[in-house]
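Complex record, two chains
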Amino acid sequence: MDILEVTNLTKEFGGLTANKDVSMNVKEGSITAVIGPNGAGKTTFFNMITGVYQPTAGEIKLKGQSIVGLKPDEVAKKGISRTFQNIRLFGEMSVIENVLVGMHNHLKTSLFGIFLSLPNTKKEELQAEQEAYRLLEYFELSHLINEKANNLSYGAQRKLEIARALATQPKLILLDEPAAGMNPKETKELTDIIKRMGKEFGVTILLIEHDMKLVMELSEQIFVLDHGEKIAEGNPEAIRTNPKVIEAYLGSAAVQ
Amino acid sequence: MLLEMFQTLPQVLIDGLTLGAVYAVVALGYTMVYGILQLINFAHGEIFMTGAFIGTALFIMIMGWGSAIPQILLLIIVLVITASITGFIGVGMERIAYRPLRNAPRLIPLITAIGISFVLQDVIRFIAELTSGNYIVTGPSLFSENINLKTSAISSVFNDASFKTSFLIVLTVAILLMITLDFFVNRTKWGTAMRAVALDRETAALMSINVNKVISITFFIGSALGGATGVLFALQYGTIDPYIGFILGLKAFIAAVLGGIGNIRGAMLGGIMLGVMEMFAAANLSLLTGGIFGAEYKDVFAFAILILVLIFKPEGLLGKPTAEKV
């Protein structure tokens, strides 16, 4: 069963074509990677899936339902969440508040409940805090809950972004270069977390990454973009030996 | 000279705190909207004025029914109704005038805001003249008993202070409004969402927050607070006209800048400070300058302090210095 079906997705910015006729199907419960050289259109692709950009042409379906034309918050409510290439935490807010923002849509408190401080509202906010705490425990960040997000180490900020994205209870999570800027030890730790979290949170993972070791170790399926077009797809072994992929990364001289 | 300043201190503090509380609550409206949209909503002073008129109309209307409603109950009813109406005016204003300009250069919504100010002033003036024949309206006198505070009993350097009960009402209601807002912003789901939108609108949307709804809520709360303060103002000073929003709005805006625009607690602090400084100047300026400047220069004094603060701390008292992104 495919959770995400993308058909002939195209995005043009003025005269520049960032994505051209990209099609890909992502299997439910899988870990799938999108790789490609810098400027291949990977982040643009993520931005279209999450509703930040509207595609020029093409179709995106989540569980068989079209999500083209929805606004980012509506896409998030349908069950897609993401992290960012450049960390975009709410830096001035505490660690736990960042996670609580992610849980926003699942808290049913009405504005009336807040102003009348109904017991239900209080109970629910307490539950939310407990849930956020558990999530942070999973990412080994629970000792930092009251710290400002800005004060966290780089690796911890990356993990917090994933925790915040998971707090929205997504069906599909998009990780945009989760290991960027991490040292080898942090990358190893992150690889383990990503491997576990797919099953434990019942979430399908689609990631962009340049760290090939991480990509090859985690992914069941890999899609390769170059100059906005999909040039290859397959399992890690097939991608590793695909001449088109080698050419895209190393230039045509490497293949001959 | 020092002794004379001490003598008037209790009265200065009472008057200053009351005026400051009014500035502070109005300043909240400026600072909340700025925090979320980086928009200086100059029409906010007119929302305050609209609240004063709606409040006065309601006082006159309800009291005209002749029933002997207790004053305090009457006040609560009028506050709630006025705040709701001005809240919805604020939401409508954003929906009609600001949202279509969300991605326009910043100067454009600023001009729109000034335009809305004129529209509100003239609409209120029109309605007031149509119904009462004069745009200067005097409301009923409520909470007008005098209370004498025997501050001279604390220490003989102080004079006694006196104030109308309405002072106490204004101060209490304003402080209650501020505490509630602070709780709302810092401790609740929608308050957290509001702060998230202020920090990074796009990311907040990706975390399933409906940004338009948060902006509407912000305008509702800011305008409801502004309208409620208008009622308090009308209660305190009795006579109102459609132009009271201009200078008061300007001062509240200055209070917001003084405290650090975008910072909610800063707006409260800035408002209280500005109010106390103004009253201090009114009482002591002629004393301090040997009669050269009189009480009518109180605004100059308050604004001079503002300029001084901003020279040394341009981000405002509680604001965070923002590094230029390179």
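Note: Chain A touches chain B at residues 50, 52, 71-73, 76-77, 81-82, 84, 88, 90-93, 97, 100-102, 104-105, 107, 109, 111, 114-115, 125, 128, 164-165, 167-168 (CB under 8 Å).
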